[in-house]
Write a structure and sequence with these properties.
23% of the residues lie in helices and 31% in strands. By secondary structure, it is an alpha+beta fold.
């Protein structure tokens, strides 16, 4: 399957479930944007697989990119993939009869701290922005895995084989756990006072759905000796997100991040003309005047363009030894180099 898309933005959901050898290929013509040509490139998924624990791997090729852009694009995508994508994690656990993480539970092989570490490894995907509560109540003898959980309909369990604990005959393990969405890593906050989390033991939450990202830049040749970059990206996820979706979301985040920089305008501060802002710190040496005109201005204590802006064209003629030719030279230099025009009418000077 081949999709034709624009080179910058695409809906993160548009690449879900596409065939392993599918291509997202841009038109080979060039698009003019803001007077600059933007080279088109193709994105191809050349390898994809899913492991027994449902973690996923995808390998992508982006080419052709202009020389040097492979590293720029690859590094930016890698950083966003590793730190800015939203994921799901267990953030706290409440176990019946337990009030601290160093306790033990009768008839359970693992202590509470080990159970919390195992819960930290559970891979989930929630379709709700609100925190959800999962539950477990089980009697031994049994080996407890994640498929024993009682989860809300909004929550999907990715790896059902995740080990939790082993119970001996007659023992009972009963617990509730909080499921949240987030970004990056959230350490336990011992100072947080959450009345709704009574008796819950907090867990360092890893929300990142991306486990690993590699990229490399190779040479790509088009039509003879034209050298381009070929970017190869490898993405490993925990299974809660497909590598194709992760790549698309990362690109979307970068586009949104840089979008405000496309239309930069200069806005003058109220009460301060643009000429004042531009000329306040520019010495008159930058105007490259003749020696005669320069010396006359210096003797009149005119040291910067800001000082010149206090004068009109007629005022310049009143400076000692400053003739019509020198005045015209200064006026022309201001207009040519800074786009500043002095008013003609004479002002009243102190």
């Amino acid at each position: 399957m081949v999709l034709t898309v624009a080179p910058s933005i695409q809906n993160p959901k548009s690449v879900q479930g596409y065939a392993l050898q599918s291509k997202i290929q841009n038109q080979k013509s060039k698009v003019e944007k803001g007077g600059h040509s933007v080279a088109q490139f193709q994105i191809e998924c050349i390898e994809s697989n899913t492991d027994k624990d449902r973690s996923q791997y995808g390998k992508f090729v982006l080419e052709p990119l202009d020389r040097g852009q492979g590293t720029t694009v690859g590094n930016a995508l890698r950083r966003v993939l590793m730190s800015n994508l939203e994921g799901t994690a267990v953030t706290s656990v409440r176990i019946a009869g337990v009030n601290h993480e160093f306790a033990t539970i009768e008839g359970v092989r693992e202590d509470v701290l080990e159970i919390l570490l195992n819960m930290k490894e559970v891979v989930l995907k929630t379709h709700s922005q609100q925190p959800q509560i999962g539950r477990l109540r089980i009697e031994g003898p049994v080996t407890v895995t994640a498929d024993r959980f009682d989860l809300p309909s909004e929550v999907e369990l990715i790896d059902k084989s995740q080990y939790i604990a082993t119970l001996s005959p007659g023992s009972v393990l009963e617990m509730e756990f909080r499921i949240e969405k987030g970004i990056g890593y959230r350490a336990v906050d011992r100072t947080r006072d959450d009345g709704s989390a009574l008796d819950f033991l907090q867990i360092d939450a890893i929300f990142m759905p991306i486990r690993r990202v590699n990229y490399s830049v190779e040479d790509a040749r088009l039509g003879g000796t034209v050298e381009k970059d070929r970017l190869v990206m490898e993405i490993w996820t925990d299974g809660s997100m497909a590598p194709q979706e992760a790549l698309s979301q990362a690109a979307h985040i970068l586009v949104d991040l840089f979008a405000p920089l496309k239309d930069i305008t200069t806005v003058a501060t109220p009460g301060h003309p643009v000429e004042d802002i531009l000329g306040s710190q520019i010495p008159i040496e930058e105007l490259q005047l003749s020696v005669r005109a320069y010396n006359c201005l210096k003797r009149a204590q005119i040291n910067s363009v800001a000082d010149l802006l206090d004068y009109t064209q007629e005022d310049l003629l009143e400076i000692k030894n400053f003739g019509q030719k020198s005045a015209e030279e200064v006026i022309e230099a201001l207009q040519k180099r800074l786009g500043i025009t002095l008013p003609q009418e004479k002002s009243s000077k102190s």
